[in-house]
From TrEMBL:
<feature type="region of interest" description="Disordered">
    <location>
        <begin position="1"/>
        <end position="33"/>
    </location>
</feature>
<dbReference type="GO" id="GO:0019441">
    <property type="term" value="P:L-tryptophan catabolic process to kynurenine"/>
</dbReference>
<feature type="compositionally biased region" description="Low complexity">
    <location>
        <begin position="1"/>
        <end position="17"/>
    </location>
</feature>
<dbReference type="Pfam" id="PF04199">
    <property type="entry name" value="Cyclase"/>
</dbReference>
<protein>
    <submittedName>
        <fullName>Kynurenine formamidase</fullName>
    </submittedName>
</protein>
<dbReference type="GO" id="GO:0004061">
    <property type="term" value="F:arylformamidase activity"/>
</dbReference>
<dbReference type="InterPro" id="IPR037175">
    <property type="entry name" value="KFase_sf"/>
</dbReference>
<dbReference type="InterPro" id="IPR007325">
    <property type="entry name" value="KFase/CYL"/>
</dbReference>
Amino acid sequence: MAAPIEAAPSTAAPSAAGQSKGAPSENPADLDRQNPEAEIAARAEAYRNWGRWGEDDVLGTLNFIDASARARAAALVREGVAVSLSQPFDMNGPQKGWRRRTNPVHTMLDTGTDAERANQGFPHGIGGADDVIAMPLQCSTQWDGLGHIFDHGYAWNGRRAGDVVTSDGDLVTGIEHAADVIVSRGVLLDIGRHLRPESGELEDGYAITADDLRSCAEAQGETSAVRTGDIVLVRTGQYARARRDGWGEYAGGPAPGLSLTTAGWLHDTEIAAIATDTWGFEVRPNEFDVPAFQPLHQVVIPNLGLTIGEMWDLEELADHCLRLGRYEFLLSAPPLPITGAVGSPVNPIALL
């Protein structure tokens, strides 16, 4: 199979509307719904970042986070409010077994009952409890690493997928490389409240456009201005609906999410990472009338080098942001340094 064209990163200046000149259309109505291959390829070639940070790069757009970005983000902590953005890691999660993804299985190895019965073999009356958890790394609140998705057999930075991820794990871009990186300014774009003020929840299947992202940032005010190195959080309201009404098809079913046509916005804003409150980040069903599966993933992970977070609980954070009238904060969301992993559970903390 031929390699994708190694196009240089786009250097075209954004237009007044924010879109690079000569770039693929940002209007979902312009998508050829019969030809996902061409639509994906056009955006992969227009926004590819291969070589931008050198041929040995393992971080992709996380390179946009530097010491000055973290220092500026730290100055955003004013109230001292800390908010966890993680779902619970337990058996009551959304997974239903697709591709062997299950909810976490938590098992006790030693318990208080064992201690009461003095059958643990410890001296002078001391007892203890131990436990173990078994789970897919992407079954709850998590990051997609750069080795998670490939484009025509190629991984981030133009490497052959088989040279990157083997049965030994991700030998090149394993999630452990980001263990001390993902701390930066977070920006919440509460698209659910912006577009559906009465319910605060987008309907399943709604494709969020670049104009939606821009108009939300503008409506929320200056603290929502998206800058280089930011981690953008997109609240659709689907998580709130799932927790209220039951998980249903939350894992893999219809969902609001980003349109394929937002690829240019994701590239041109120079954000470091993005996360949503949905299972799959992008709109589902995907925007084609023929078989397609997660086309925006195919563009942004292996081509842009963008780290994606999914299944984040943004409800409490959104309430705080609305109350305070500001949507920026220090966000600390390091992955577990699991050697060779292509994703990681995470307990993101927003500090306001």
